[in-house]
Amino acid sequence: MPRVLVDAVAVPADRGALIRYVDGLVAALDRAGADIAVACQRAEAERYRRLAPSAQVIPGPVSITNRAARLAWEQSGLPLLARQAGADVIHAPYYSIPLSAGLPTVVTVHDAMWFTEPDQLSPHASFFRSATRTAVRHARRVIVPSKATRDELIRVLSADPTRIDVAYHGVDLAQFHPPTGEEIRRSAMRCGLHDQPYVAFLGALDPRKNVPNLIRGFATAVKRLDEPPALVLGGGVHEDDVDAACREVEATVRVIRPGYLRAPDLPGFLGGALVVAFPSRGEGFGLPVLEAMACGAPVLTTHRSSLPEVGGDAVAYTEPDADSIATALGELLASPQRRHQLREAGLARAREFTWEACAEAHLSSYQRAIE
Predict the structure, then answer these.
(1) How many Cβ atoms are within 10 Å of 224's Cβ, its own excluded?
(2) Does residue 120 have a pLDDT over 60?
(3) Which of 2, 152, 177, 217 would be a feasible disulfide site paired with 326, CB 3.0-4.6 Å?
(4) Across the strands, what pairs with 114?
(5) What's the confidence (pLDDT) of residue 10?
(6) By the 8 A CB rule, do 139 and 107 touch?
(7) 246-270, pLDDT tens digit by residue?
């Protein structure tokens, strides 16, 4: 079995979907008996030791907490660290790679949205486009979380399909589970709901997630209800267009923005919702959809990019425009029976996505890189 250095130094500290991918993968690789070392920020070292007790955890230098220093260290310090650790292969789980590592490198490219939705993304898009082009060209193997992402890389970057491996993400069923009544109550209190029913969104409030159209569609869907639910937007940064959409809707429409939610509150938040709405314009995988299904939530999402690969027939679909969202969401709110069907189907489908299967796919990719 090859010795793998996983470069977790670049994992953002916001505890979003990326860190759940790296955490789930590292823990599953360790359980599978893989020979791994994990490079990480010093502040994260103890956490990785708990996640992967058999792994060698190597804290990086103090100086690499900012992006410029980290990228410079990635090109020189990381290859040296890999050789000192006796690694056979380096896995970079976040787009960028060392160009002269001296040993095979595997990179995870999470999506191609930097190319296909350039106006819907952050001001850092040019960096990620450059890093993705370089990684796809120079890495020995490229791991992607969905067939849709593989196909997009082939289409927009002429990537070599024989060097791309698909590894679906998993879901931690101990963390994401149908909540108890107490978990629902605690989450509702933190969001200030006071027993009011609600529709939930969880994710970054960036343009790609389509939150302004969700707000407009929600307002239309509930405007004739005697006791309308609230819309709770969990996570992310408050973008200007989200604020503008909130100002457009009537004062009687309640939109709550609690900011980032603690991990222990997520099962209650997702599983306690009437519907979890995730009308994204496109995803590399769509981990929030999978996690919501695992919590027993009826899910409404779009039939875009990888989302049908995750949701299958276990979720409801809408187009991303506000009118379509209003129609689809209104139908779900009016049908407890349909929500119950989606809840049961989602729980069953979520069990098909495991971190053990994800780790197995990664181990196969590492071996191909060496061969």
Answers:
(1) 8
(2) no
(3) 217
(4) none
(5) 83
(6) yes
(7) 888 887 899 999 988 998 999 999 9
Residue 324 sits at φ, ψ, to 5 deg, of -65, -40
Rounded Cα–Cα distance for residues 174 and 185 (Å): 19
**Distance in angstroms (rounded) separating the CA atoms of residues 144 and 151:** 10
Query: What structural domains and CATH numbers belong to the chain?
Result: 3-170+354-370 (3.40.50.2000), 181-350 (3.40.50.2000)
Predicted confidence band at 121 (pLDDT cuts at 50, 70, 90)?
A: low
Instruction: Report the C-alpha gap between 242 and 255 in whole angstroms.
Output: 11
Angle (CA) 101-103-104 rounded to 5° is 105
Question: Rounded distance, CA 136 to CA 269, Å?
Answer: 37
Tokens of residue 235, six digits: 């996570």
The predicted-structure confidence for 353-365, as pLDDT tens digits, reads as follows 999 999 999 999 9
CA distances from 205 to 139, 236, 243, 349 (A): 31, 5, 11, 26
Q: What is the DSSP letter of 178?
A: P
